[in-house]
Amino acid sequence: MILTVTPNPSLDRTYEVPALHRGEVIRATGERMDPGGKGVNVSRAVAAAGRRTVAVLPLGGAPGALVADLLHAQGIEVAPVPVTGATRSNIALAETDGILTKINAPGPELTAAERAHLLDAVRAQSRTADWIACCGSLPRGLAATWYADVVTRAHADGTRIALDTSGPALLEAVRARPDVVKPNAEELAQAVGRPLATIGDALDAAERLRALGARAVLASLGADGQLLVDDAGTWYGSAHVDTVRSNVGAGDASLAGFLIAGGNGPDALASAVAHGAAAVRLPGSVMPTPADLDPTAVTVTADVPVDRVLGEPAV
Ligand SMILES: Nc1ncnc2c1ncn2[C@@H]1O[C@H](COP(=O)(O)OP(=O)(O)OP(=O)(O)O)[C@@H](O)[C@H]1O
Ligand SMILES: [Mg+2]
């Protein structure tokens, strides 16, 4: 079982609109609702692979109840932590020309009691988990050290833990020695305070995160593929995609692919790359099923092309 923790989930409402015009009434031609949040995406990808997953998340108000309903409908077990504040609704405006404008709400502030319940819920579920995946930003009311506490508790219970977050929450958490962290290029550059121009720069930054405490680093570099750096070595994986439809959630699909395949070594990296490539071929944040994967398109090598220039340098 893969347990996911999404401290700041959302109800994602997408409106299809012809074009945006400030100050006018815009009539949507279509609308949809999805459960949102990075841990939620990882659970959706794990469920799409036919594996068991439990999503721990604070849920409040009518939007929170809708998020739970939408997750159940996708075969995802939910371990809700009831909170007084309403779960946030994030708005996406999808124009016909493919431009997406998003408005993300901050989400409710958790009380001291709710914070304690959230930690307890993670611990109660983690006993049967192969992995815990902690994903996304922290809501107001959770200290930057919150993920670090979850890592320490997971290790006390003998459970492995993966982390996909950014900024101070990432830097605090790596000190607690998480089993793997999955920054993208921008998050990696920010964490080390240096721009990344080449694969070699990304490798140096990943090594730096390991020096700070992360046991393994799975760095996702968009179209430039992924790097895995751990105690056993360094690998680079990539897969060419002809037609990119949406890169939203590709990193979450990658992390799910990595964990489903055991969560370490080159085979798990290959699975992460296959899931990332499949996710970008699918619309929106749709997560790939096994039928969407093309493992033959993935190459993994221990011979990291350090001099290769990144298509999108990270600052
Ligand atoms: N244009 C692309 N072509 C091929 N593969 C891609 C492309 N974009 C993303 N991928 C694959 O998906 C992986 C994850 O993408 P990315 O690094 O953009 O994640 P991310 O920024 O964490 O995404 P998110 O947080 O939205 O889930 C990449 O490492 C790569 O394997
Ligand atoms: Mg990401």
Written account of the structure:
This protein is an alpha/beta fold. It folds into 2 domains: 1-177, UDP-N-acetylmuramoyl-L-alanine:D-glutamate ligase (3-Layer(aba) Sandwich); 179-315, Ribokinase (UDP-N-acetylmuramoyl-L-alanine:D-glutamate ligase, 3-Layer(aba) Sandwich). The chain has helices at 38-48, 61-73, 112-126, 146-156, 167-174, 185-192, 199-212, 250-260, 265-281; strands spanning 2-5, 10-17, 30-36, 53-59, 77-82, 88-95, 100-103, 131-135, 160-164, 180-181, 196-198, 217-220, 226-230, 233-239, 298-301, 309-314. The strands form 4 sheets. A 6-stranded parallel sheet has the order 5-4-1-8-9-10, with helices on both faces. A 4-stranded mixed sheet has the order 3-2-6-7. Helix 4 links the parallel strand 8 (131-135) and strand 9 (160-164). It is globular. The two termini are 36 Å apart. The model has no long low-confidence stretch (mean pLDDT 96). Adenosine-5'-triphosphate (ATP) is lined by residues 184, 220-223, 225-226, 241, 244, 247-252, 254, 273, 276-277, 280.
Q: Would you tell me the structural class of the helices and strands?
A: alpha/beta
Say how many strands there are: 16
Instruction: Tell me the distance between the termini.
Output: 36 Å
One letter per element, helices H and strands E, the order comes to EEEHEHEEEHEHEHEHEHEEEHHEE
Q: What is the third-level CATH name, the topology of the largest domain? A: UDP-N-acetylmuramoyl-L-alanine:D-glutamate ligase
Domain Carbohydrate kinase PfkB: 19-290
Family: Belongs to the carbohydrate kinase PfkB family.
InterPro entries: 1-PFruKinase, PfkB_dom, Ribokinase-like, Tagatose/fructose_Pkinase
Organism: Streptomyces nigra
